[in-house]
Design brief:
single chain; about 120 residues; mainly beta; 7-stranded mixed sheet; 4-stranded antiparallel sheet; 11 strands; globular
Length: about 120
C-alpha cells in the first residue's frame, strides 16, 4: 500500500502561483510514475501532468502546458506541481496519483493509488 498526502493548495488571484506537494509513504515510489489530476465541481477527474520514475519524461495536458511544471525528488518520496499564471478555470481539487504499471498516462484507470486531494481556488 502507498499513502499519498497532498499539500499546498489555497486561494490565489488570477495570474498568481502555487506549488503543490505530494508526499508518499508506505513504500518507496522512486520506481513508479507519478501524476497529478484535478476535478472541478460537476466535472470528471482530468489529467494534469505526469512524470516517469526518473523524471526523464514529462507529460502535460494542453490546458496547462507552459504554465505548470511537474517534478519529483525521489530521495524525499515527493512529487511537486509548480503552477504559474493561474486562471479561474484551474479551480479544482488536485489529486496526486501513482502507479507501478503501464497504460495511458492520462487515464485514471491506470493508476493504483490516489491521495485525498487539495483544493485550489483561483479568483478572477
Amino acid at each position: 500500500q502507498v499513502q499519498l498526502v497532498e499539500s499546498g493548495g489555497g486561494l490565489v488571484q488570477a495570474g498568481g502561483s502555487l506549488t503543490l506537494s505530494c508526499a508518499a509513504s508506505g513504500r518507496p515510489v522512486s520506481s513508479y510514475s507519478m501524476a497529478w489530476f484535478r476535478q472541478a465541481p460537476g466535472k470528471e477527474r482530468e489529467f494534469v501532468a505526469a512524470i516517469t520514475w526518473n523524471g526523464g519524461t514529462l507529460y502535460y495536458a494542453d490546458s496547462v502546458k507552459g504554465r505548470f511544471t511537474i517534478s519529483r525528488d525521489n530521495a524525499k518520496n515527493t512529487v511537486y506541481l509548480q503552477m504559474n499564471s493561474l486562471k479561474p478555470e484551474d479551480t479544482a481539487v488536485y489529486y496526486c496519483a501513482t502507479r507501478s504499471r503501464g497504460g495511458a498516462y492520462y487515464s485514471t484507470d491506470n493508476y493504483d493509488f490516489f491521495g485525498q486531494g487539495t483544493q485550489v481556488t483561483v479568483s478572477s
